[in-house]
């Protein structure tokens, strides 16, 4: 998964201003300023931008400091590429930086004014949050927990794969959904299995978590066994397909960047 690529990620807020050689993430909607060399995303350094920009520290990985550009910018030799393109470049520190930086960019786009008193928010000089210039209300980046579920039918050596309805992502996925207020991740897993596929599950087993900045999520992966009937009653408003797939037929490879891909591979390669 992409968060495992950097050897050392330091998410601690660093108030030291950006230097010329620090890397910078400039977004424009769901596009990011990069150069793609040999299917690798290369980010501009601060000194390569066409002008000095307002910026804020994001995080540090393997000795490189990454900053978010807070205004429109360009750089010679770089262009805006859609995030969906970055999803398929070689997994490395820069790819992880783009996804995590996008999470932070969304936070800045969505939090310009205080929701308590309406005054302007500005970035705290000490920590990763916005502070109201009037009532001092503090606003932190949104993080939405969601569960991903590998539902296994042991008797038929199969796993339940789905395709989302009405989304750009057309490949096979697993049952997934947001954890609701007042609910544990395990309860959310059971509810989502029932809502999306009509299946009862048991023996939930934690697999891994993954930050997923594309949608400001923290993904929490579980495997579970189907209990009772394996008959699927698909929720057509959420899914376009829900099928049992035999272990050897699961379309997965090792080394993917997503938790879903990792879980599908774990099943196919008999780690689960
Ligand atoms: Zn306020």
Describe how the helices and strands are arranged:
Layout: E1 9-10, E2 23-25, E3 27-28, E4 31-37, E5 40-42, E6 55-61, E7 64-69, E8 79-82, H1 83-86, H2 93-110, E9 121-123, E10 130-132, E11 138-139, E12 144-153, E13 158-164, E14 175-178, H3 185-197, E15 200-212, E16 217-227, E17 239-246, H4 259-268
Parallel strand pairs: 2-7, 12-16
Antiparallel strand pairs: 1-6, 3-4, 4-5, 4-8, 6-7, 9-10, 10-11, 12-13, 12-14, 13-17, 15-16
Bound molecules: zinc ion.
Short description:
The chain has four helices and 17 strands. The protein has 272 residues and is an alpha+beta fold. It folds into two domains: 2-110, Alpha-Beta Complex (Nucleoside Triphosphate Pyrophosphohydrolase), CATH 3.90.79; 144-268, Nucleoside Triphosphate Pyrophosphohydrolase (Alpha-Beta Complex).
Describe the structure.
The chain is an alpha+beta fold and 272 residues long. The protein folds into 2 domains: 2-110, Nucleoside Triphosphate Pyrophosphohydrolase, CATH 3.90.79; 144-268, Nucleoside Triphosphate Pyrophosphohydrolase (Alpha-Beta Complex), CATH 3.90.79. Helices cover 17% and strands 35% of the residues. Strands 12, 13, 14, 15, 16 and 17 form a 6-stranded mixed beta sheet that branches. A hairpin with a 2-residue loop joins β4 (31-37) and β5. The longest helix has 18 residues, at 93-110. The two termini are 17 Å apart. Zinc ion (ZN) binds at residues 114, 116-117, 119, 132, 134-135, 137. Residues 114, 116-117, 119, 132, 134-135, 137 line the site of zinc ion.
